[in-house]
Amino acid sequence: MMSIGLAEMVTYLPISSPFIRFASRFVDDAFGVAAGYNFFVFEAIMVPFEVTACHMIITYWSSIVPVSGIIAIILVLFILLNVFAVQWYGEAEFWLALGKVLLSVGLLFFTFIVMLGGNPLGDRFGFRYWNNPGSFAEYYKTGSLGRWLGFLACLIRASFTIAGPDYVSMAAGETINPRSVLPKAYNGVFYRLTSFFVLGALSVGILVPFNDPTMSDAFDKDLPGAAASPYVIAMDRLHIPVLPHIVNAMILGACFSAGNSYVYCASRSLYGLALDGKAPRLFTKCTRNGVPIYCVGAVLLIALLSFLQVSNSSSVVLDWFVNLVTASQLINFSVCTFTYIRFKKALEAQGISRDSLPYKGRGQPYVAYIALTATTVMAFVGGYTVFLPGNWSVPTFLFSYTMIGVFPVIYFGWKFIHKTEVKKLEDIDLVTGVAEIDDYTRNFVTAPPGNVFSKTSKVLFD
């Protein structure tokens, strides 16, 4: 839902970091600042999350290396890649991303084959685990209420995993022929991610029961087992040789790649805020290679939170990071939808028909209102378990609700200091930059694919 409104704004005016800058342009400068810092925190916290995940995956092979040692090694590698080898970042991430896609597709095929009996045990288990122990797990309570709480817990975790349209928009200003490419990109991201998420969740439910002891031990007792991967657990249970190690290694590579990407993206987000005068000027300093060195340093300082694993279990620390990131992500989505609502109202106030836009989403503004309501409610519901009897936990509460408190503090603080005002609908700038992109689009000439790789990419992704 959020992607529809974002696509409409970004294809109309494709600029870099659009949803952050649109928040300033269509709502209030202070709103844009709060959105920018929220997005920075979201990306920065994902770094220690991925470091923690890497440690959990490595325990599949051995737990002999101290937790602090693994964390230190990963962080040093992040430093080397983001400070001294940043020129290879783009190409490396392309191939790593391709590996992630192949892994995802391969695991879907694996699920289909083994559920039909294509495994060393000849076990044609199909949807067995949907009947025993069942498809809905009880959570905290028994009966219908317990199953509802279980569903709600899954919904909260799903809120953590959903991302994509906001990342597509980040590259809008550098996209070739954006008004043609971006609508396809938004639709592609939505349908492909939805397919992978739905089919992936379906596969996990087919392969492993929700009460699997190995998976429960990995999460509840922090015991090294199959690194908490349901796919690897299923492979081990079916006595499939070698493949579990390959899959686990690929998952480890995916987590490491994601962590490295978040270091890069978070540092550039902070750098952008500094260039706009919304963060200390110190963060504008770059090395000779163009690396915003102090921004990278700030992100890696936040990454030191991964050392929380030393005194707490990895699964608990992961849960803390998930709670913080989920709240930040949902706030980000709320910002996007609210900004779109303001954009649409400004169009109406200034007599600009949505029919004149290069891309027009369906069901607006109702879709935007539904998305705004849903994301806002989910942001507050995310840490509900701490309020259940006997479940109060200060760290869990703080990680679940810190950003909900920080966002308005940044907004009102910036508003008070800089005396910003919410822009009137009639005064919102819907013109600057539009003529240039109109002219660019009219004169753009599509170049034919130059090689086999380009032709294949065009067939697969256009």
UniProtKB/TrEMBL annotation:
Membrane topology (UniProt): Multi-pass membrane protein
Domain Amino acid permease/ SLC12A span(s) in chain numbering: 2-424
Record GO terms (molecular function): amino acid transmembrane transporter activity
GO cellular component: membrane
Stretches that traverse the bilayer: 30-58, 64-85, 97-118, 148-168, 189-210, 245-265, 286-308, 320-341, 366-386, 392-414
Annotated keywords: Membrane, Transmembrane, Transmembrane helix
Stored PANTHER family: AMINO ACID PERMEASE (PTHR43341), GENERAL AMINO ACID PERMEASE AGP2 (PTHR43341:SF15)
Protein name per the record: Amino acid permease/ SLC12A domain-containing protein
Lineage: Eukaryota, Fungi, Dikarya, Ascomycota, Pezizomycotina
